[in-house]
Design goal:
single chain; 354 residues; mainly beta; Immunoglobulin-like; 2 domains; 6-stranded antiparallel sheet; 6% helix
Length: 354
């Protein structure tokens, strides 16, 4: 019988469910103090609130433990006193529908302490007119580098005249998962990939960079913003990219701009950015001096989905081939389950094409 040992599958599975989107650099963390994170979003189509603590036992080697969440409750009031209650685990409440022009305030109780946000108004978002990939060679790179030939992706919009506007852009990439487990084959003396079951299984890659812009110098004019660079490489044959444009509040813009300028790394709900930026618009009521992480973001948005053709011919450019990290298992019946999580999904992405 073929001897196959599960050395990494369980670890990878756990990482897929709980891995941080952004890395932790413990050398830049403040003194080892536990911080409360209050991170919330209100939009025209959903609301969500996450209340947790920062990672514990962070080591220079990158080790950490996930915190035990506080006993928490959260709700939002609009300017008319209408109340919406939210879970505090970060799950989306799609029953909530924000209204452009309405002002909202977040209230949180965590481990017996009270917190409240500044009032934030949902601002209108202009249409995302187009998302365009533009081929460009980065000649400062070596020809062997993955991003030597690639596509700079731009978002195009028209600024809303007559008011101050603040924009943020985000993206997400879906790619079909070719393998859902990496096992060690003792007979072959190497790791092997195990295909996914069911076949319809997608990996998810998130943006980790802050991209914001104000209309201070672009009042009422067209705006073109570079969002991301995609390498000219296969697989996939068609690169799926969903780009979102947000109209954010001034306080959130200032907060994100400070991160963009100094670190280019937002930090997630669980991480502290390299240059720590404390919550700009949620404050302690019980203890006004308490420092919090996270942000209360109220925004409207528009999005578009594009597919970049990686089979096209570009004069002078050669598409790179991304190799598999290991060969597939030599067993036609072997399969590993596709497990739903933050970085993998069984749900076919909107607008997916083969």
């Amino acid at each position: 019988m073929r001897a196959i040992h599960f050395l990494t599958a369980a670890a990878l599975l756990g990482a897929g469910l709980h891995a941080c989107q952004y890395p932790v650099d413990s050398s830049t963390l403040p003194d080892p103090v536990r911080y409360l994170v209050i991170d919330a979003e209100l939009t025209e189509t959903y609301g969500k609130v996450n209340v947790t603590y920062t990672l514990t036992d962070v080591t220079p080697q990158g080790g950490y433990n996930f915190p035990i969440p506080p006993a928490a409750a959260a709700y939002v009031l609009d300017s008319h006193g209408n109340r919406t209650d939210f879970a505090t685990d970060g799950s989306k409440n799609t029953a909530f529908a924000g209204v452009v022009g309405e002002t909202y305030r977040l209230y949180v109780e965590a481990d017996g302490k009270q917190y409240v946000s500044d009032p934030e108004t949902l601002r209108p978002c202009p249409e995302l007119d187009s998302v365009t990939p533009v081929y460009r060679r980065e000649s400062f790179r070596a020809p062997s580098e993955l991003y030597y030939d690639g596509f700079d992706v731009y978002a195009h919009t028209n600024d809303i005249a007559g008011q101050a506007n603040y924009y943020q852009w985000d993206w997400i990439h879906y790619g079909r998962a070719v393998s859902c487990a990496l096992l060690y084959d003792a007979n072959a003396g190497r790791d092997v990939l195990v295909p996914c079951t069911p076949y319809d299984c997608w990996n998810i890659v998130y943006n980790t960079q802050v991209t914001v812009q104000s209309d201070k110098l672009r009042e009422g004019q067209p705006i073109a913003q570079k969002i991301v660079r995609v390498p000219f490489a296969r697989p996939p044959a068609k690169y799926y990219l969903r780009v979102e444009q947000r109209s954010i509040t001034p306080s959130v813009y200032t907060y994100l701009q400070s991160i963009q300028t100094q670190t280019q790394n937002t930090g997630s709900l669980f991480d502290i950015p390299a240059q720590t930026r404390f919550n700009p618009n949620v404050h302690g009521v019980t203890d006004p001096a308490e420092s919090l992480l996270g942000v209360f973001s109220v925004f409207s948005s528009r999005y578009k989905i594009i597919h970049i053709d990686m089979q096209q011919t570009i004069p002078g450019a050669e598409v790179k081939v991304i190799p598999l990290p290991a060969p597939f298992i030599n067993d036609p019946l072997a399969a590993a389950p596709c497990v739903e999580g933050p970085f993998r999904t069984l749900v076919r992405p909107e607008g997916w094409v083969e």
